[in-house]
Design a protein that fits this description.
The structure holds 2 protein chains of 2 kinds.
Chain A lengths: L1 H16 L2 E12 L2 E12 L3 E5 L6 H9 L6 E6 L2 E2 L3 H4 E4 L13 H10 L10 H13 L15 H13 L5 E4 L8 H18 L2 E6 L11 E6 L2 E5 L1 H4 L2 H8 L3 E6 L2 E6 L9 H8 L8 H7 L1
Parallel strand pairs in A: 3-8, 3-9, 6-7, 7-8
Antiparallel strand pairs in A: 1-2, 1-4, 4-5, 9-10, 11-12
Helix pairs in contact in A: 4-5, 4-6, 5-6, 6-7
Chain B lengths: L1 H7 L8 H26 L3 H21 L3 H19 L4 H30 L3 H8 L7 H20 L1 H9 L1 H6 L4 H23 L4 H15 L3 H25 L12 H19 L8 H15 L1
Helix pairs in contact in B: 2-7, 2-10, 2-11, 2-12, 3-4, 3-5, 3-6, 3-10, 3-11, 4-5, 4-10, 6-10, 7-10, 10-11, 11-12, 11-13, 12-13
The chains are: A alpha/beta, B mainly alpha.
Chain lengths: ~300, ~300
């Protein structure tokens, strides 16, 4: 037990030394007189995998737009790679939500990945061995080599998501943002994409921030969570954030957190029954495997 | 051997100046239509291209009244209509069809008026036939030069914007995330399409120019999954249809019923259709495409859209 704690402390120590990839500092956004984001603050270091959790309308997409520099905050600022402003499109890889690709579009998976490298440049690309090698390496890294020459529009949702990740990562960003990459995926593809992202963020030292409205698929691999409700955010490890007291404060009404076989259920509770409070429930149901521990999951892989 | 050549190329084909101009201008029109048409088709702007062709009739008929080459009218009105469509909202799906329909209706109304004036002032329907069905064998040298210039401009637009255009055609969201100005890119693409249409209108006629814009591109999409090759195939198919069409029209001088030569436009459009059907049915799907899957997904896609 002592050894384990020492290891964890060492991990934390190293983590704080690592380069800060993203800092969101007290960001507020007003759209049409309504406050869509209120004093959102958190930071992500290189190699960290962070889930941005919240239901529809919680402000996830607005927050991603602020990070990308597409939406100006009314207050606060966003710093990427320790600097403010600058060319965001280079430092940040971004995969928007709900991308529809036409099966009749003559564009292979490898073409789309190549466009991630130089799609914003003018002129016709000349065939180059270096470019091809980079594209091949990226396709391998995301497990898309098998369907590299198929039209992207004909691929399954999970396959397309791999190609999107390669498209976003080939320009070597320090931060990868993905908006709802797990939406419309079957359970198996969902797990595959999550573990792929976790592996890539560790191997390449890339900070990954993905939005999702379901927390459970991300639990085994998430280093930290940014939990959003009604424009407010709470961030920290899942143990720190996914608790009845924290989420009740965030939602502004009583919320229960139920742990079940390593998964969590966040449900609206009845505030007038504090005697059998949620804290006790969680203790009863709390088992060792409820605690998402990045180190353990690393070893398992 | 020479007998075969004589049978294929009727006497005087290679020495005729109108034929040389027809091959040059027709070739340019086919090339530009093939290249710009590929993007028009993959961007779902076939209808916009068709409407640009209709609207260019307005310009063609106006320049006939003004006594200048119809090419200038086709090009000027086509580019203006492209800009108008962009302003009204061609980049949104529903807005696109509405914008196209509104601009197209207004243009055709004006065209009807101009053609009526043209017909009453000369007491012939010459202008109407020339504008609607083309005049590839009666293009003047100065018009040919202008056609080459406009074609070069259209090709340059597509060549320079090739990659941003490809990415924003595949997914405007991804292109936007890459920092590509999606709207300007789309507007310039529409200008290239308008120029392609005006060249085709000059050669095979305003109402038939859509065939040269959409047909070769549609065939090319069946032949390859590579974007560059698709553009190339489209251009080659368009060129083949146009040059063969010119040849057949020249040869048809000796055919029944009147020994006057059949219209080029008929041959070009018929050949485009033949090439499309060949690509559709005679060619197996390209390697790397998974046929069963592609088809079932495509079917699902169509079903969802219907």
């Amino acid at each position: 037990m002592v050894d384990r704690n020492t290891v964890i402390t060492a991990e934390l120590g190293r983590a704080t030394d690592r380069e800060q990839a993203l800092a969101v500092e007290g960001v507020s956004v007003r759209l049409g007189g309504r406050e869509v984001l209120h004093d959102v603050r958190f930071s992500i270091r290189a190699g960290e995998f962070v889930g941005l959790i919240g239901s529809n309308g919680a402000g996830k997409t607005t927050l991603l737009r602020v990070i990308l520099g597409l939406q100006k905050p009314a207050a606060g600022q966003v710093r990427i790679g320790g600097e403010g402003g600058g060319r965001r499109d280079r430092a940040v890889g971004y995969v928007p939500q709900k991308i529809e690709l036409d099966p009749d579009m003559p564009l292979r998976a490898r073409d789309l990945v190549g466009l991630g490298l130089d799609g914003n440049r003018f002129g016709i690309p000349l065939p180059s061995r270096a470019r091809r090698a980079m594209v091949d390496e990226m396709l391998h890294a995301v497990g898309a080599a098998d369907f590299a020459d198929a039209r992207v529009g004909t691929l399954s949702g999970g396959e397309q998501q791999r190609v999107m990740i390669a498209h976003a990562l080939i320009s070597k960003p320090r931060l990868l943002l993905m908006d709802e990459p797990l939406a419309n995926l079957d359970i198996r593809s969902e797990q595959e994409i999550v573990s792929l992202l976790a592996r890539i963020s560790k191997e390449r030292g890339i900070a990954v921030l993905i939005s999702a409205h379901e927390i459970n698929p991300l639990l085994p691999v998430m280093d930290r969570v940014v939990y959003m409700a009604a424009g407010r955010a709470a961030s920290g490890t899942t143990d720190e954030v996914v608790r009845p007291d924290v989420l009740t404060r965030l939602y502004g009404h009583h919320v229960d957190v139920i742990h079940l076989h390593g998964r969590v259920l966040v449900v609206a509770g009845r505030g007038e029954e504090p005697a059998i409070g949620p804290r006790d429930d969680t203790h009863v149901l709390h088992t060792d495997q409820d605690v998402p521990d990045p180190d353990v999951t690393e070893e398992q892989r | 051997m020479s007998a075969v050549l004589q049978a294929v190329f009727a006497p005087g084909f290679f020495t005729s100046a109108p034929v040389r101009v027809a091959l040059l201008v027709g070739g340019m029109a086919a090339l530009v239509s093939g290249v710009a048409g590929t993007f028009a088709v993959v961007r779902g702007q076939s209808y916009a291209g068709h409407a640009l062709a209709d609207i260019s009739v307005t310009g063609g008929s106006a320049s006939y009244l003004a006594g200048v080459s119809p090419l200038w009218g086709f090009a000027a009105v086509g580019v203006a209509a492209a800009a108008a469509m962009d302003l009204i909202g061609v980049q949104r799906r529903r807005g696109r069809d509405l914008a196209t329909g509104i601009v197209r209706g207004a243009g055709l109304g004006l065209a009807a008026l101009f053609l009526y004036w043209g017909t009453t002032s000369t007491s012939t329907t010459g202008a109407t036939v020339t504008i609607l069905f083309g005049s590839i064998f009666t293009i003047s040298a100065s018009t040919a030069g202008a056609a080459a210039l406009l074609g070069a401009v259209a090709l340059a637009i597509v060549a320079v914007l090739y990659r941003p255009l490809l990415l924003s055609s595949a997914s405007p969201e991804l292109a936007f995330a890459r920092g590509i100005p999606v709207r300007i890119t789309g507007a310039l693409c529409l200008v290239a399409v308008a120029l392609a249409v005006s060249l085709s209108a000059l050669t095979i006629g305003a109402i038939l120019s859509t065939a040269l814009l959409v047909g070769p591109a549609a065939a090319a999409l069946r032949l390859t999954s590579r974007p560059g090759l698709a553009v190339l195939w489209s251009a080659v198919i368009g060129l083949a249809a146009t040059w063969l069409g010119v040849l057949l029209a020249y040869d048809s001088y000796y055919w029944p019923p009147a020994h006057q030569g059949w219209p080029v436009s008929f041959f070009v459009v018929a050949l485009v259709l033949v090439f499309y059907l060949l690509a559709q049915f005679a060619v197996t799907r390209p390697a790397g495409d998974r046929p069963g899957r592609a088809r079932s997904l495509a079917a699902g896609h169509d079903g969802a859209g219907a």
